[in-house]
Amino acid sequence: MTKTRRLEDLWSHIHCLGVLADTGSFTAAARRLQISKASVSQRIVELEQAAGVPLVRRTTRSVSLTEAGASLVDHTASAYQRIEAGFSAVRDLSDGPRGVLSVTAPVALGRQVIAPLIPGFLARFPDVRIQLELSDHLASLATEGFDLAIRHVAGVPDTHVASLICETRSVLVATPQYLSAHGTPRTPTDLEGHNCLHYLRRSGGATWSFESLDGDKRVAVPVRGSFTANNSEVLREAAAGSVGIALLPDFSAGQALQRGTLVEVLPGWRVVGDYAERLYAVRPYTPRVPLTVTSFVQYLRQAIPAAEGLAAGIAPHAHG
Q: Which part of the chain is the HTH lysR-type domain (predicted)?
């Protein structure tokens, strides 16, 4: 005979079901709860045994709730949200931020800009642990369990909150050796005669668009080259090998320009519409923002504009 579980023994199990409903997978739920996937599965099994009805539909490709499971989550979700908000408020009364902060960032940006700054943050806030995942995949923060995403994007969904960290810009670069051998472009249309190294996009052909610094002229140039890649660090290294002219975000080009291994091409023109011109910290909308999240965003706002290499060696263009 199965022993009846006391309801108070199942609070964490019910919360686990709610997280599973939010994330849509046992793996993502385990990540958010910081327990193993097997533990998540075991809690759901025990909860179903105590309830006496199936709560989750499992297939090889997806996880969804049964009518009973959805009903249980609907009745309890707001209570757990209030508990979480109340606990966060109490925890924030401590001397500073604490707990785990899960962050995602693009590979090149994360390696070159974010990762070097993390030791300074951890030294300032020793009670915080950071989990940083570098991926060019645009993660769904709610379903994949991230607290924050650092993104080089033009805009974000209405369901998320974006905090501007800093302005960025794109820059054309090449080695002095390449320009000596092949000539220095004087106008954007001169690029049609050059080996142009561009970011690999699914749309196929590449077009670089330019605006004169006074804003009076706009030019769109179809470009071709012997090498494309979906990572700005890789494009920078190809340009550094005198393969051709590369279009890079400033955080990838800055240090090489400062050292003189790369030089800016067409400095009298501004590249528009290729890479985004702003760096954001993006988080899901919540009524109350954890102190750990706000502290990290504030830290990045202060540290990144001063970080050597983000725009080092690049004179800012005037906008407008």
A: 9-66
